[in-house]
Amino acid sequence: MSFTLTHRLFLSPPQRTHLRFTFKPHTLKPIVSSPSKPSYRPIVSSLSHNSEHLSVTQAKPRWENMLSTAASLYPLYVTVGGVVACFKPSAFAWFVERGPSSYSFSLGLIMLAMGLTLELKDLLNLFTQRPLSILFGCVAQYTIMPTFAMIISKTLGLSPSLSVGLILLGCCPGGAASTVVTFIARGDVSLSTVMTVCTTLGAVILTPLLTMVLAGTYVSIDAIGLSISTLQVVVAPVLLGSYLQSTFPLVVKMITPFAPLFAVLLSSLLACSVFSGNVVRFNSSIVNASLVSDASLVSRLQSLLSGGLGAVILSVMLLHFTGFFVGYISATICRFREAERRAISIEVGMQNSSLGVVLATTHFTSPVVALPPAMSAVIMNIMGSSLGFFWRQISGSKQELEDQE
């Protein structure tokens, strides 16, 4: 089964086209590839860039397409949840009061849902076919974002707690929602999916190590504790889900259609709950700015941005913008195809903010450390979705992008 569509946790509904011919100009007859897997798995044939295959996809039932469509609305859920958290933070009190254990348990379930749609052998196959672009994307993920998180925190003069939170966010692996945005942008979805899995598996070592190196000057960092937590709530559930998928395929087949929507709703709840827990501090910044009645609008905005709310919003926006921009430019310099550039840009710019929230609430005493990851869940998805829709409007399909190259 194709890894691209097997890992469907974060993909929008497939198009209704059932047959797709892809062949080189001099080839007269397409080669039909039939699936060799048992009949309980979807009949899908994945195409590499230079493959000569006829891809046959079995149409999904309407209710599965509806669930996939609902799952693709993750940016909408987290935005609505953020608005509710602003006006009625008590709506999430039942979840916040049980933290941080509720946060860790939720992230573990999200990663388990991701693992249920993953076949490690397909991951290895794709890695052997396209090692250069995957390796470049993973290196870019763990160099661009951590470095610029530190630069932005120093440039804006953030407090030690906010600096640690921003650096922790930058050191997190790629976010699962990046696959949805890459699909919208007509980027290379296969590359995005593999990068997400690889950076997630590497987070056990790289996230604690980079956080200790870059943020260790602000507070004492327990790198071993961070590593153990990352292993428990991210890597172990992913591997467990993959094991269950190969061991109990019939049971997993009944569960997987509901896994995407379950995961995105739980991710939204996780981010918005942490945001609601700090909304009082944000509201105080807004009130203080509005009390300056004799000040001009510019002065009020400066007062707002100088407070906690403005510092978090500005720093998180700059971090994600830098990830999108530098990720795309670096991929362009290395002469990757346009579809790959978009996938790398989106993957670098979108982080696993849920992991940042869990690590911040579990290992740091100051609740302010969790603010950048929590705010990122809202800002990142709005920025990423906007970028995806922009790219979708200015170009044709992924195949047309490859033909132009």
Automatic annotation (TrEMBL):
It is a multi-pass membrane protein. Keywords: Membrane, Transmembrane, Transmembrane helix. It is found in: Membrane; Plastid, Chloroplast envelope. One of its GO terms (cellular component) is membrane. InterPro entries: BilAc:Na_symport/Acr3, Bilac:Na_transpt, Na+/solute_symporter_sf. The chain crosses the membrane at residues 74-96, 102-120, 132-152, 164-185, 197-218, 224-244, 256-276, 309-331, 343-364, 370-391. Pfam families: SBF. The keyword Membrane applies. Belongs to the bile acid:sodium symporter (BASS) (TC 2.A.28) family. PANTHER family: OS12G0170300 PROTEIN, SODIUM-BILE ACID COTRANSPORTER. This is Bile acid:sodium symporter.
